[in-house]
Design goal:
Elements lengths: L3 E4 L22 H26 L8 H8 L13 E9 L2 E8 L5 E5 L11 H13 L3 H10 L8 H33 L5 E10 L8 E8 L6 E8 L3 H5 L1 H6 L1 H10 L12
Antiparallel strand pairs: 1-5, 2-3, 3-4, 5-6, 6-7
Helix pairs in contact: 3-5
Length: 274
């Protein structure tokens, strides 16, 4: 596609060091140095713990049998015998699992949750990440089922919950979209030497094969060393919610009118397909 022209008006690591605060006499007392050394060592220890926690903040695929074999080499915290028990799945929701470990010697139970819940939500982090990954890779729920099946992993959440997860993600994506594209435009302006008439490239796609699709999307990208998206748009010639609510028109005109006033219509294009 030909380029078009359009105008668009760490994490920080703390380095710890010993700082000797000199008094009027031009020296530091040994107690001052010891206190500062102790504080610095404590700060370094805290920083090391935080770094370890950051390095361990990831998911790991482990086969259950080797995990059980490893547990059998440890003592049960209740009876102090070598653990010899069983593992059962008490709850599963997509890739999230709650495992229950039972010691056969004393009957002590302990549970392990495979993923934390997202704050102020009933969703689990791993299932939301799966929905994000599927979207980034161009895979729907059916595609993810094939991938997870090949890896001998549990299937994703049910279709309705998967759609709800996508809606949940969309809310945050929309909040981040505007500052992201503004930053991309400003980066392109800086690379162009301050010129705001930017050369961009564009591309589009539609839902079905051929040229009869009623849904379409487009994106504009900068032509910098590291191209980034500077604008997006989507068009739809129909609204599935409106079509589904047509039955209300004949049942109750008031309900249909209320629906029209409150729902967000997806129909935003009435022109030709091409």
């Amino acid at each position: 596609m030909n380029d078009r022209t359009k105008t668009y008006s760490s994490h920080h690591k703390v380095v710890l060091s010993f700082q000797h605060y000199r008094r009027k006499g031009g020296y530091s007392s040994s107690s001052d140095i010891n206190d500062e050394s102790t504080n610095s060592v404590q700060n370094q220890s805290t920083s090391s713990i935080e770094n370890i926690e950051d390095n361990m903040n990831f998911y790991l695929i482990i086969h259950l049998n080797p995990l059980i074999s490893s547990l059998q080499q440890f003592l049960c915290s209740e009876c102090n015998n070598l653990w010899d028990g069983s593992v059962s799945v008490k709850e599963r929701n997509g890739l999230y699992m709650q495992l229950e470990f039972k010691c056969h010697s004393c009957g002590f139970l302990t549970r392990l949750c495979s993923s934390p819940q997202i704050p102020n939500s009933r969703r689990h982090d791993i299932n939301v990440r799966l929905a994000i990954g599927g979207t980034l890779c161009g895979l729907g729920r059916n595609g993810l089922m094939k991938l997870l099946g090949a890896l001998n992993l549990p299937p994703p959440v049910q279709e309705q919950k998967y759609r709800e997860a996508q809606e949940f993600i969309l809310n945050y994506v929309e909040k981040a979209q505007e500052p992201s594209v503004i930053a991309a435009v400003e980066e392109a302006v800086v690379e162009a030497g301050g010129v705001r008439n930017l050369t961009i490239s564009g591309d589009g796609a539609w839902l079905t094969r051929g040229f009869s699709s009623v849904h379409g999307i487009s994106a504009l990208c900068s032509t910098t060393t590291r191209p980034k998206i500077v604008d997006t748009d989507w068009c739809s010639k129909k609204c599935s919610k409106c079509q589904g609510a047509e039955s209300l028109r004949h049942v109750s005109s008031d309900l249909f009118r209320t629906f029209q006033e409150n729902h967000e219509c997806q129909l935003n294009y009435t022109g030709k397909l091409l």
